[in-house]
Amino acid sequence: RGLYLGLAVLVILALLAAACGPQQATGRPIKFGHIGVSTGPMAEFGEDIRRGMQIAVEEVNGAGGINGRPIEVVFEDDGADPPKAAVAAAKFAADPEIVAIIGPTMTATFAATAEILDKNKIAAVSTFATLDSLFLGQCKFCFTMGFLNTWQVKYMVPEALKRGDKIALLHDTT
Question: Given the DSSP bridges, would you call strands 30-36 and 98-102 parallel, antiparallel or unpaired?
Fold first, then answer.
């Protein structure tokens, strides 16, 4: 799954690069913060996302960057720990060169950053966070590539019932 999300980010960045033309990427880089997971219980998942982003950055920069400027991604590991994610978000928010944040990945870690993102008016996109309230009004600068919880229930449960699948209730604490 993480590889697919990394590839989705790659496609978005590649499309941006293609729209900007094939000139050489030069000048001051456009910096993105990435709050991800490279330690703890979700490390393998987080590393897939990180590798996908590295490939995307190489492709975008190889195609001339964005308007001729290279992309740079600055990484902070949150270890799937909400307080660490909040510290990373505050660090990026205080850096005037960071234009946006990729991550945090998990719902709980992303939720821990919402107030910081709004207060500092810095946009962040998560690959997997799914808490409806975060993305439907609570945080004006929060975005996700994941399916919100209500959408998952609305579309997945009826499909599972049609197929005769058994349904289990899971509670995510990450």
Answer: parallel
Q: What is the mean pLDDT of each run of 10 residues along the chain (174 residues)?
A: 55 56 74 94 87 92 91 95 96 96 89 92 85 77 79 82 80 62
**Closest by Cα among 75, 47, 84 to 174:** 84
Residue 72: DSSP 8-state: E
Closest CA to 29 of 94, 98, 91: 98
Q: Which two tokens stand for residue 9?
A: 């980010």
- pTM confidence score: 0.76
Whether residue 104 has a cis bond before it, omega within 30° of 0: yes
Amino acid identity, residue 38?
A: S
Other CB atoms within a 10 A radius of the CB of residue 87 amount to: 17
108-139 as b/e: b if 16+ CB within 10 A: bbbbbbbebbeeeebebbbbbbbbeebbeeeb
CA–centroid distance for 10 within its chain: 12
The C-alpha atoms of residue 5 and residue 107 are separated, in whole angstroms, by: 15
Q: Crossing angle of helices 43-62/2-20, nearest 10°?
A: 20
Q: Which residues pair with 66 in a beta bridge?
A: 69
Specify whether the backbone of 37 is left (phi greater than 0), alpha (psi in -120 to 50) or beta.
beta
Structure tokens at 51: 């590798």
